[in-house]
Each structure stands twice: as structure tokens, then as C-alpha cells.
From TrEMBL:
It comes from the Eukaryota. It comes from Eucalyptus globulus (Tasmanian blue gum). It holds the Pfam family UDPGT. Keywords: Glycosyltransferase, Transferase. GO terms for molecular function: UDP-glucosyltransferase activity. InterPro entries: UDP_glucos_trans. Gene3D superfamilies: Glycogen Phosphorylase B (3.40.50.2000). Coiled coil: none annotated. This is UDP-glucose iridoid glucosyltransferase-like. Belongs to the UDP-glycosyltransferase family.
Length: 451
């Protein structure tokens, strides 16, 4: 049984079962452990994290009732929907039954849950345990999501072409086309999920993996919107740099390859853990990179190109053309890659973790958002913080080649690099004594200790 934390307080943390959600929750767990709390990670069977990487935590598997078929071909929206239905009673049972590795309910001081697995809040309320939500996307995304519901009510979803380029009132620099619509599953369920995941219900506070200096205005709007404390305590990966939580095996062979490249010469390419490409897009990306003449490190996730295996789908001519300046892996140790001095640019889908990790290492970005909050993040990167280049329209080799050259070789790219280094410095300042994230973290810890 997990020994009591130094301060005698026990926390249950419930992550969302996707890479971009598990990562920040495990980082938060590491941070709170260092503050003296004992930690139980209550996770679904689906995409369960590797418990051996975190010997300090207790792991509790919530039976999730998903069928083998649902797990084999996961459809994100329906998985989220099913988990929120299936897991409420099994989670409650896990907590109340007091299994060998579980503490009695009255010893739990708080349940911290990812906002997408809101069944956790229902259980916390039922058991009269305080709860706090963690939002894993940006504050800007959270504050604009309700606009989608207004648009739907006005019959403006799908958003008409005539509106797409217009700025969203009170939410500049966002245009209507940047609003965080999902590509997955039914629109109605997505909108329902937006409502359910943004409700605070009985929870006592909301944690954001963001930084005051990056999102001052959206955070101010959130403070007005929600009647509970908001804790922007990011970037979590900087506060918990050793917290490993990869669902896929990392290929560390790319690090010795990077060691041989010159300073700021490599463009790192990754579209995160969810986005998919088709064969034509893969080919355009490949030739855009090849024609840019820049060395590149490219993550091609297994299964991300439906119907083909990753490397077999690249043709011989391409392999020959890039053989001295390309490294292609299935999954990279991304934080180490971005911190490597050879990496001078990141071509990213702009998931929120990748966005923070790139800013945190002072690496400018070519932005290719695929869906949802990535559109919001890309717009902030290109038009608010001005540290990213927008790759708009179809994926096309000429556009890619030009974007890579601009970022890596031209004055415009160098200016972005300077600005992102300034932002990195501000982020570094936020997490040390006197910094905003450090301050909010102390307040969060104080609240948790008061429960
Ligand atoms: O080869 C790789 C590629 C990625 N990563 C890591 O995987 C995470 C990816 O997270 P993120 O950049 O946020 O992308 P997604 O996995 O696509 O995340 C989902 O969840 C995020 C948080 O809610 C959202 O912002 C995204 O839009 C959504 O797709 C990051 O920590 C990366 O460091 C690796 O370690 N190795």
C-alpha cells in the first residue's frame, strides 16, 4: 500500500486516455508528489500508462467496458462518450470497495480529473470528495468553445465561407475558421461534449497547463466566466522534466543523429499522436522536405497513414535523395529533440503540448493545424506571439519547401527565432520564485492542503 505523502494528503488523479492528455496529468502528478502529496493515478484500461515508469505512484485501473473492436479501431468521440457512461459506476466501486491498493475514501483529499473524463466529477460529488478539473488545452480554446454553441443555434455550423476569414468579436486574433471544431464523429455529440467538459459543476477549481504571460487576455476572460479559482501553472513539462509517459516506444537513435548535425540546422517534423495523413499528403510532405535541402528529423507514427506501413510507403527516389540528411522514426523523445541545439525549427500540428514544448525550448514553428484546438494554437503562434509560420491550404510540396526555407534560412525565420527565445525566457521566469506559475502553484497546493 502506498505510504502516506509527507503531508499526509492523498490525491486521486484521473487522466484522459490519450497521449496529449496523459502527459500533462502525469506531469502534474509528479509536481504534486514533490509537494508532499501521495498520488494515485486512476486510469482507464484503454491506453493505460506504464506504471513501472512511476514507482512513486499507485496505479488503479478503472474497468472501462470497451469492446475489443472499439479498442482496435478507436473513434475518439465515441470512446470519450462511452467512457463517460461506462466508468462512472466502476470508478465509484473502485474507490468505495477499498481494494488492496486503495485507500479508504475518507482519506482522499481531492480528485483531480481531466475535463474530458467528467464522470470523475460525478463520482467525487457523490462521495463528497472535493474535485478539481484539469484542462489540457489552452485558455483561449476553453473560452471560445461556447461560441460554437451559439453558431450552431444560429444555424452557422458548418461555418459559412463568407464568415471564415472574419475575426471573432472580443477574441482577436482568432478568425471564425480558427474556432476549435472537431473532425471526429458526430458534430452534435462533439458540441454536447463541449458543454459537458466545460461545466464546473461541484468542482472547486480549474487547472490550466498555460502561462499567464502567454494568455493574459483569455485567462482574464476565464476568471470572469468561472466562479472558482483558476490556476495557470504551466508549462508543466518544465516543472516536471523527468515525468516520462509515452504510450509508444521512443526511438532514441535520433539523438546521436542530431549530435552530428550543425547548430539550428534541423527541422523536426511531427503531427502528434492523433492526426492522420493520406498517401498523397505523405508524398507531398516528403518531397517538400527533400526539396528544401534542409536536414530533417521526421516522426511517422505507425498507423498514421491508413492502409500502409510507414517506411515502405516512401519511394526509392526519395530515399536516395535524402539519405544523408534525413532521420525518420516512429516516435521520438520529443522534449529532448526540441532541446537539442541542432534543431532550429519544428513543423507541427500545434497540439497544445507540442506548442508549449517548442516555446519552452525557443524553437520557432511551421504551423499545420489538423483539427480542434490546434487551429486556435496555430493562430496564436502566428498572429499573437508571432513565432510561427502558417501553412495554409492543401499540403503541397512547393509551399512546404518555401516554408522550410523561410523558417530556417530567411530573416523572417530569424526574427521568429528571436521572439520565441524571448518567450522561452518569460516562460522560464514564470516557473521560478516570484514567477506567475510558481505563485499559482503555491495557491493550488494551499487549496489542496485545506481540503
Ligand atoms: O514522436 C513524438 C511525438 C509526440 N510526442 C509527445 O506527444 C505529445 C503530443 O501532444 P500534443 O502536441 O498536445 O498533440 P496530440 O497528441 O495531438 O494531443 C491531443 O491533445 C492535446 C491536449 O489536449 C490537444 O492540444 C491536441 O489538439 C490533441 O490532438 C507531446 O507531449 C509530445 O512531446 C513524443 O513524445 N514523441
Amino acid at each position: 500500500m502506498e505510504s502516506e505523502g509527507r503531508n499526509g494528503k492523498k490525491l486521486i488523479l484521473v487522466p484522459g486516455p490519450f497521449q496529449g492528455h496523459l502527459t500533462p496529468m502525469l506531469q502534474l502528478a509528479t509536481i504534486l508528489k514533490s509537494k508532499g502529496f501521495s498520488i494515485t493515478i486512476a486510469h482507464t484500461h484503454f491506453n493505460s500508462p506504464d506504471s513501472s515508469a512511476h514507482p512513486d505512484f499507485t496505479f488503479l485501473c478503472i474497468p472501462d467496458g470497451l469492446s475489443e473492436e472499439e479498442v482496435r479501431n478507436p473513434d475518439l468521440m465515441s470512446i470519450v462518450q462511452r467512457l463517460n457512461v461506462n466508468c462512472e459506476s466502476s470508478f465509484r466501486e473502485c474507490l468505495t470497495r477499498g481494494t488492496n491498493h486503495m485507500e479508504p475514501v475518507d482519506k482522499i483529499c481531492c480528485i483531480i480529473y481531466d475535463a474530458v473524463v467528467f464522470f470523475s466529477e460525478a463520482v467525487a460529488r457523490d462521495l463528497k470528495v472535493p474535485s478539481i478539473a484539469l484542462h489540457t488545452s489552452s485558455a483561449a480554446t476553453t473560452i471560445v468553445r461556447p461560441i460554437l454553441l451559439q453558431l450552431k443555434a444560429q444555424g452557422h455550423i458548418p461555418i459559412p465561407d463568407s464568415m471564415l476569414q472574419a475575426l471573432v468579436p472580443l477574441h482577436q486574433p482568432l478568425r471564425f475558421k480558427d474556432l476549435p471544431l472537431s473532425n471526429f464523429g458526430s458534430l452534435d455529440y462533439f458540441l454536447e461534449l463541449v458543454v459537458l467538459a466545460s461545466k464546473i459543476r461541484s468542482s472547486s477549481a480549474i487547472i490550466f497547463n498555460t502561462i499567464h504571460c502567454l494568455e493574459e487576455s483569455p485567462l482574464a476572460q476565464l476568471h470572469q466566466h468561472y466562479q472558482v479559482p483558476i490556476f495557470p501553472i504551466g508549462p508543466l513539462h518544465k516543472l516536471a522534466p523527468t515525468s516520462a509517459v509515452s504510450l509508444l516506444q521512443e526511438d532514441t537513435g535520433c539523438i546521436p543523429w542530431l549530435d552530428k548535425q550543425t547548430h539550428n540546422s534541423v527541422i523536426y517534423v511531427s503531427l502528434g499522436s492523433i492526426a492522420h495523413l493520406d498517401q498523397d499528403q505523405l508524398s507531398e510532405m516528403a518531397w517538400g522536405l527533400a526539396n528544401s535541402k534542409q536536414p530533417f528529423l521526421w516522426v511517422i507514427r505507425p498507423g498514421s497513414i491508413p492502409g500502409s506501413e510507414w517506411i515502405e510507403s516512401m519511394d526509392e527516389e526519395f530515399k536516395e535523395c535524402v539519405k544523408d540528411r534525413a532521420c525518420i522514426v516512429k516516435w521520438a523523445p520529443q522534449k529532448k529533440v526540441l532541446a537539442h541545439e541542432a534543431v532550429g525549427g519544428f513543423w507541427s500540428h500545434c497540439g497544445w503540448n507540442s506548442t508549449l514544448e517548442s516555446i519552452g525550448e525557443g524553437v520557432p514553428i511551421i504551423c499545420q493545424p489538423c483539427f480542434g484546438d490546434q487551429n486556435v494554437n496555430a493562430r496564436y503562434l502566428t498572429h499573437e506571439w508571432k513565432v510561427g509560420l502558417e501553412l495554409e491550404g492543401e499540403i503541397e510540396r512547393g509551399t512546404i519547401e518555401r516554408a522550410v526555407r523561410t523558417l530556417m534560412k530567411k530573416k523572417e525565420g530569424e526574427e521568429m527565432r528571436q521572439r520565441v527565445l524571448d518567450l522561452k525566457h518569460k516562460c522560464d521566469v514564470s516557473i521560478v520564485d516570484g514567477g506567475s506559475s510558481c505563485h499559482y502553484l503555491s495557491e493550488l497546493v494551499e487549496l489542496l492542503r485545506s481540503f
